[in-house]
Amino acid sequence: MTRKLTLPMFVTGVASLAMLGGCVIVDADEHVRADWDLDRSYGTLKGADVSANTVMARVSSNGCTTKDFIGTDVRKTGEDRFSVGFFREKEDYCRAYLPEGVALTWSFSELGIPDGAEVKIRNKVSN
């Protein structure tokens, strides 16, 4: 015996499959940069300063950016010389208007750099 598929039967079947399929919830508050791509684009900083065994980077922010959002890439370039590149690891989805961005500061010890070393910033700096 052959049955003909009618529109009400099709809609009922699709609805049944949807109910059995369950639900997937995605937490869109934080997006972590994938580690596997190794494409660390050193974005343009709004400002940078190296002084008193600290490194300051002024970065764009929508109101929530902290040091946890910014990755650092420290490389030894000589006897007592290092370079530091900053890259964004998490997006800032807040909605504040901060045209000057935020200034984030790392100590040399946080970056694994000995006190008194010469440090160069690899990022471009522009307002």
Q: Could you estimate the helical fraction of the residues in percent?
A: 10-25%
Q: What share of residues are in beta strands?
A: 25-35%
User: What structural category do the secondary elements indicate?
Assistant: alpha+beta
How many whole angstroms does the radius of gyration measure? 25 Å
- Give unreliable regions as ranges: 17-38
Distance between the termini: 76 Å
> What's the total number of strands?
6
Largest sheet: 3 strands, antiparallel
Order of helices and strands: HEEEEEHE
Per DSSP, the total helix count is 2
Layout of helices and strands, plus pairs?
Layout: H1 7-21, E1 47-51, E2 54-61, E3 70-78, E4 81-88, E5 98-107, H2 108-111, E6 118-121
Parallel strand pairs: 4-6
Antiparallel strand pairs: 1-2, 2-5, 3-4
Organism: Henriciella pelagia
Signal peptide: 1-20
Protein name: Lipoprotein
Question: What are the key terms here?
Answer:
127 residues; alpha+beta; 3-stranded mixed β-sheet; 2 helices; 6 strands; 15% helix; elongated; Lipoprotein; signal
